[in-house]
Amino acid sequence: MSGRVLVVDDVATNRLLLRAKLSSAYYDVVVAEDGPKALDLARSEQPDMVMLDVMMPGMDGFAVCARLKADPETAHIPVIMVTALDTAEERIRGLEAGADDFLSKPFNDLALFARVRSLMRMKMMFDELRLRDLTSRELGLAEVMPDQDIEAEPSGPILIAPPDAGRGGQLAAELGARLSIGTIVTSSEREALNLSRLELPDCFIVHQTLMEGGDGLRLVSALRARPETRQSAVILVVENGDVGTAAKGLDLGASDYIEAPFDVNELIARIRSQLRRKRYSDRLRSNVRNGLKLAVIDPLTGIYNRRYASQHMIRVMERARETGGVFAVMMIDLDKFKSINDRFGHDAGDAVLREFSRRLQENIRGVDLVARFGGEEFFVAMPDVDAGAAGHAAERIRRAIEDAPVRLPGGAGEVDVTVSIGVAVAGAGDGDAEAIIKRADSALYLSKEGGRNRVSFFARAA
């Protein structure tokens, strides 16, 4: 995973040190020596993350962070505040200014890179949601999303998975009194998973060691794997500065972590920050989903149609132009689909299309876009993907369809289904969206001519 990081520090040695560390992990680094320049660079460069020193002359890090979060052009950029004064008071002040996390000097490389990876994933997710929201608004399907009432929106309960009943009960009482949000205390890992389905918490507080021999990291992983809890905030509690466990938790999908023993005020500030982020992402998803249902959602399969995909391709190409990256598109056709309709009827054909759409979505990334172009023809757009990754994804999709027959409605039995796939990889300068889609369509023709149930790539003329 790569991205652009803006490093802000008034001390040249500190800037050089962070630049060297981040560059060694293949991040693109931009530097600023003071707050005003940082604000200008954040607007012009649109970095994926800002690493911001707290103690700077003139405008300190807290003021810069507050300005970044107040500006609609930069409010979505994650901010890590860097300080030599690692106190709960400093962290709370930064979180209240909008910071996403704190790192203390000297840096622990494990904590640094785990936090950067985690926030980069979050930024990628928000970028994709904002991209889809922009596409919807340009199509006239949604209005600009108001932000003023986001703090007032109701929250689901907070589920606490503690190391023992005493600490769980005490924490629940403190959080309930201070946040006016319902709390649930669980007695085991299994109970936490079961209650998460019933209560739909917006936030989980998970200790690294759970009662009845439970494993906090395993619970974090399970929560992220389940659709009903995938978007919830998860804060991992680690003991005595266990950076290794914290880093592993972030890589498994924890939204944040806090070291025990902790100041409950800091935990509350972190919960508020995570809930604010979740409400924003929920609102983006809702805005996109509600605006698109009638106009650009295929009613049979529930995925996007060609109208939306064509507009979205423009955004994908714009992002490729900004990053200098490449992207891939696939055209997918169900082999001999007409024979299924002729043999089993159109209800069976509809069932096959719905099941194919489900498997297709299960075998792509969250940032990829799936659309039905019509009949049995489907489309996938994959940003930031080269030929090798696109080929692996296409083969994964092909096998997912071939390996299991589709059960037909009304007890009509099962039918084997295969697909032919055409892939084209392009950059922003490789023609317009329709030309790139036509290349993938040409590759699809090669797959069908070559015997079906295969993947072909568009080959440029020599």
Automatic annotation (TrEMBL):
<feature type="modified residue" description="4-aspartylphosphate">
    <location>
        <position position="53"/>
    </location>
</feature>
<keyword id="KW-0597">Phosphoprotein</keyword>
<protein>
    <recommendedName>
        <fullName>diguanylate cyclase</fullName>
        <ecNumber>2.7.7.65</ecNumber>
    </recommendedName>
</protein>
<dbReference type="GO" id="GO:0052621">
    <property type="term" value="F:diguanylate cyclase activity"/>
</dbReference>
<dbReference type="GO" id="GO:0000160">
    <property type="term" value="P:phosphorelay signal transduction system"/>
</dbReference>
<dbReference type="InterPro" id="IPR001789">
    <property type="entry name" value="Sig_transdc_resp-reg_receiver"/>
</dbReference>
<dbReference type="Pfam" id="PF00990">
    <property type="entry name" value="GGDEF"/>
</dbReference>
<dbReference type="GO" id="GO:1902201">
    <property type="term" value="P:negative regulation of bacterial-type flagellum-dependent cell motility"/>
</dbReference>
<dbReference type="GO" id="GO:0005886">
    <property type="term" value="C:plasma membrane"/>
</dbReference>
<dbReference type="InterPro" id="IPR050469">
    <property type="entry name" value="Diguanylate_Cyclase"/>
</dbReference>
<dbReference type="InterPro" id="IPR029787">
    <property type="entry name" value="Nucleotide_cyclase"/>
</dbReference>
<dbReference type="InterPro" id="IPR000160">
    <property type="entry name" value="GGDEF_dom"/>
</dbReference>
<dbReference type="InterPro" id="IPR011006">
    <property type="entry name" value="CheY-like_superfamily"/>
</dbReference>
<feature type="domain" description="Response regulatory">
    <location>
        <begin position="4"/>
        <end position="120"/>
    </location>
</feature>
<dbReference type="InterPro" id="IPR043128">
    <property type="entry name" value="Rev_trsase/Diguanyl_cyclase"/>
</dbReference>
<dbReference type="Pfam" id="PF00072">
    <property type="entry name" value="Response_reg"/>
</dbReference>
<feature type="domain" description="GGDEF">
    <location>
        <begin position="325"/>
        <end position="460"/>
    </location>
</feature>
<dbReference type="GO" id="GO:0043709">
    <property type="term" value="P:cell adhesion involved in single-species biofilm formation"/>
</dbReference>
<feature type="domain" description="Response regulatory">
    <location>
        <begin position="157"/>
        <end position="275"/>
    </location>
</feature>
